[in-house]
Amino acid sequence: MSDKIAEIREYLASDDAAAWVTNLWINYNNQRQGKLNEWEELRNYVFATDTSTTSNAKLPWKNSTTLPKLCQIRDNLHSNYLSALFPNDDWLVWEGYSQEDSVKKKRDAIQSYMKNKTREGHFRIEMSRLLYDYIDYGNAFATVSFESRYKEEKDGTKIPGYIGPRLHRISPLDIVFNPLSSSFLTSFKIIRSIKTIGELKKQAMVEPENAYLASAMASRDRLSSNLGGYSREDFQKAVGYDVDGFGNLHEYYSSGYVELLEFYGDYHDKVTGQLYTNQIITIMDRCHIIRQEDIPSWFGYAPIFHVGWRLRPDNMWAMGPLDNLVGMQYRIDHLENLKADAMDLSVHPPLVIQGEVEEFIYGPGVEIHIDADGGVTELGKNLNGVIAAANEIEMLEARMELYAGAPREAMGIRSPGEKTMFEVAQLQNASGRIFQEKINMFEMELEEPALNSMFESAKRNMDGFDLIRVMDDDLGVEQIRSITREDITAAGKLRPIGARHFAAQAQLLQNLSGVFNGTIGQMIMPHTSSIQLASLIEDAMGIAKYDLFKPNVAVFEQQQTQRLVSQAQEDLAVEQATPADGAMPTGTL
């Protein structure tokens, strides 16, 4: 073995944990290769502009039109999911575990702080990307971090930028776990990320929890400098494995990118026999450990969260709403292009030429010269099949909407027959149950734990105070408020109630409208408190800040209006009875 090969192997010698973490990633990533292929086929159909990039390309049709039904269902689901999660500005509430943790001052401080950080930290944008994963892959993964961004002026003054927790999407392609585990929380997780050296150095500057990356990048710079004098052939002789997306190691180290594998969870050391729990291990270049420590979260588990659209028994890789519609999309494109080819043949059919016929261009008014025994005949086509294909396409599109659980009423689709307003409301509520159940699951299993993890990260990393903008409900103006760690330290839980409140509000108002518009409403009207009913409407519709309802306020306002009208009438009468200046009184000379 040459000295060069020995030197390269020495530089790239794997640490103990690096080897088994890397092998764990490779094994579990290879085991889901079939699912990765399905996701790729689905993505090709969603973003296709014609059938040349889909599995329909192998069909022998001259036309290559694709009807973007999958894409339309995807957009419909995403827009309605997002609208349900954030129906208004009051989508987040704090629920304290004790009376002290639920006082108005503490509740307002926590809600104001988190609403400010979700707004400034682009929480809604990241949730939108997670919803696309929820629809496209059937699985959405998220984690959180704490950032401290400053802008340094020429005089050395640091101007604070965004300081606080931030939500991050994890691509389903970049994470593996044990799909047979009892829950995602108890399974190990390995996250793969590819970043430039500059991105990692900046991440070490702005994220306190990732400060370790500064020393790791310094070591990587020295390693790259030492390996810069070796050729591709030297690497091929020294090591025999590739890095995903880069080919061999020579190309990887020459690319300026760094691959990180982050392991979260428990592991057993076979050498020492010791069990390590709640560990985070970061592997760089698949051979060097740059971090191994306890997971810093106070919750005692990794701040990584997962939600699945259609759960499978004994497998945590869930199914998406579009997965089993790919075959129907294939059928739609097949019928559309079959129909188009049939129409082309009907409009411009093939010709049967018999005998001696002079060469001609087929078109209107063309003269065709033929011999006595010659002839030109069109091959006629029956259009009944074209009509049947069009009807089948329409039926398939309607079924795809139904199977995906899309809220059809949002697209203006209504079942036939005349109905009362209450009957329509009942049908809309029943037909949207699949949609509501799926968005509730997303809200409870991913959004809620992610928000509480962001809140925990803020309390753990906040140093000093933070200035946020809050709305004063009494004055109706926006104010700057100073928030300290003590202001937001409390035992409780943040609850996003956008989707759940939206559904409950719609159901409640529909039921009330149906009851009071019928005979039962007339019977119970003498026993109904209009003041309490006004409070219910105010709470259900979230309009308390407008102060519309007060006990008998309309009586007092009408009384005041009547006073003003009476006073105005008296003033007018006095004005009419009083002569104008300079005028002679009636009956005088």
Give the helices and strands, then pairings.
Blueprint: H1 3-11, H2 16-31, H3 33-46, H4 69-85, E1 92-96, H5 104-120, H6 123-136, E2 139-152, E3 158-170, E4 175-177, E5 189-196, H7 197-206, H8 213-227, H9 232-238, H10 249-253, E6 257-268, E7 275-284, E8 288-294, E9 304-308, E10 310-312, E11 315-319, H11 326-347, E12 351-354, E13 375-378, H12 384-403, H13 421-431, H14 433-461, E14 465-472, E15 477-484, E16 492-496, H15 498-516, H16 519-524, H17 530-541, H18 553-577
Antiparallel strand pairs: 1-16, 2-3, 2-9, 4-5, 5-6, 6-7, 7-8, 10-11, 12-13, 14-15
Helix pairs in contact: 1-9, 4-6, 4-15, 11-12, 13-15, 14-15
Describe the structure.
The protein has 589 residues and is α+β, with helices and mostly antiparallel strands. Among the domains are: 1-31 and 186-300, no CATH class; 68-172 and 304-322 and 435-499, no CATH class; 529-576, no CATH class. It is 46% helix and 19% strand. The chain contains 18 helices and 16 strands. The chain has helices at 3-11, 16-31, 33-46, 69-85, 104-120, 123-136, 197-206, 213-227, 232-238, 249-253, 326-347, 384-403, 421-431, 433-461, 498-516, 519-524, 530-541, 553-577, and strands at residues 92-96, 139-152, 158-170, 175-177, 189-196, 257-268, 275-284, 288-294, 304-308, 310-312, 315-319, 351-354, 375-378, 465-472, 477-484, 492-496. The strands form six sheets. It has a five-stranded antiparallel beta sheet. A hairpin with a 2-residue loop joins β10 (310-312) and β11. α4 (69-85) crosses α15 and α14 crosses α15 (498-516). The longest helix has 29 residues, at 433-461.
